[in-house]
Amino acid sequence: MLEEDEKIEKICSVCKKEAGKRCSRCATVFYCSAEHQQQHWKTHKSTCHPFKICSNEQFGRFLVATRDIRAGEIVLKESPLVFGPAQITGPVCVGCLQGLEEKKHMECEKCGWPVCKRSCQDHSSHQAECKFTVARGSKVSIQHFYVPHPTYQCLMPLRCLLLSESDPAKWDALQRLESHDDERRGSEQWRNDREGVAKLIPRFFKCENKWDEDEILRIVGIIHVNGHEVPLTEPSSVAIYNMASMLEHSCRPNLAKSFTNRNEVILWAPNAIQRGERLSICYTDVMWTTGNRLEHLRQTKMFSCECERCNDPTEYETYSSALRCSGFQKDGKCKGYLLPVDKSEWTGDWCCLKCHKEVTGAAVGQILERARMDLDAMQKHREDHCNKYVKHYSKWLAPNHQFLVDVKISLSQVIGGNNPEAIKKIPYDKLMNKIKVCQELIALFEKICPAEARAFGATRFELHAALAELGRRSTESNNPAAAVQLEDSLYNATECVRMLQHEPSILMESKICAQAKKNAETLKALLGIKD
Ligand SMILES: C[S@@+](CC[C@H](N)C(=O)[O-])C[C@H]1O[C@@H](n2cnc3c(N)ncnc32)[C@H](O)[C@@H]1O
């Protein structure tokens, strides 16, 4: 793809004469002189990205790096085309989108939609729907605050539809996004959207002839396929971006996603990316098993993932979706792992990679369902519950299985994590166990999700804290290993900061990052390291 670039005539974007300079930020436009480059910057800066848009039959549009991207570089920072409440949500403030409690809210003076404070009724994102609601002739009246509210399902689609009048340029960009209209038609989700949105909007807003059902359903499809969950409010909200919506999915993506306090998305590269590589994010949860990821992508994004990770049932020999053969055999001796007989059929029969015994899909399903239910029921903030779960399900699940990893992440945080002093009081074996759990998690993340910045950041923080405590104890007992342990702690604190540097101040991760920064300074002083 990029070889074609080499054949492109290098012509100055300003005077169209032969050009010897290339824009170093995007590597896609040329100039004959520094003056012309400077002159062109005003127009060029909005499209100056280190990637270009490509497309093919299978993926539609996708983004490809036009130059080498350094580890840590921001690849794209973008404001949303539109943002609003999630489809299934209790009442939230229509200005800032924060959740509301029954007696602690007010109503927009013009239209009646709930807001948390007066200034929120003037929020720009509420204006078009406010006018539109006023036009229906009566104010909205939200009465029930503790259940998902049906009218809220209409809000995000309405915000999108009203862009055609309030912001035609954004409306055009929205129209170009994939809706999977035909594939969605007839599905359970589509039927719910038809009843809950496409039929409700005309009825509720008294606008029978404004949009037809198919038009509304197409927009709902665009929201499902392209919407990003934004975790800045409680409950989370949804935003649609223009460029970011063109990123393809991979179950081992190369970009990390974060948000600013203003709902901008930040896509950055935790590790270096080579020119010509395709840029990707994960549309589902990278920690899930292959079966769960595939199913979720099929249901919500309408495609069957064929990425490298999905094509390798061992998932880079981590066996993250595997079960243990021993759990299903009477003698319990076989140490092999079970994986599906057919790698694209995760609900079919499974087979042991070692002894080749087969287990029915139903038996596998039963264990997974039980493990999932116990996971939902347990108290993850309790170390004893976590240990009990890990001990019990290690009989059936491979050590890197989604459910065990979920509990091990909790365990890494709860061991000595009650308060800043708690780690000083835990016995040596617990401290070593915390270190072991963190190291195993990091080794797993490096293989299956090297760009999962938040998981890395949080686990690096726990590991740094445990190693600092180990170093402290070693120092007290004159153990010569102390220096290495403290250096290792410093390395993990620094990595934590690197991974969480783009997290917004609203989120806990940003506080963890700030604490890691402080701790790194203390460790440097202790080790006599100067910047
Ligand atoms: C958010 S959109 C990405 C942009 C889209 N390709 C476009 O042209 O607007 C998501 C859709 O892109 C396609 N897509 C993204 N990643 C894919 C992948 N790994 N394999 C197949 N299709 C993919 C699917 O059709 C998916 O529903």
TrEMBL record:
PROSITE patterns: SET (PS50280), ZF_MYND_1 (PS01360), ZF_MYND_2 (PS50865). Keywords: Metal-binding, Zinc, Zinc-finger. Residues 49-284 form the SET domain. Residues 12-48 form the MYND-type domain. One of its GO terms (molecular function) is S-adenosylmethionine-dependent methyltransferase activity. This is MYND-type domain-containing protein.
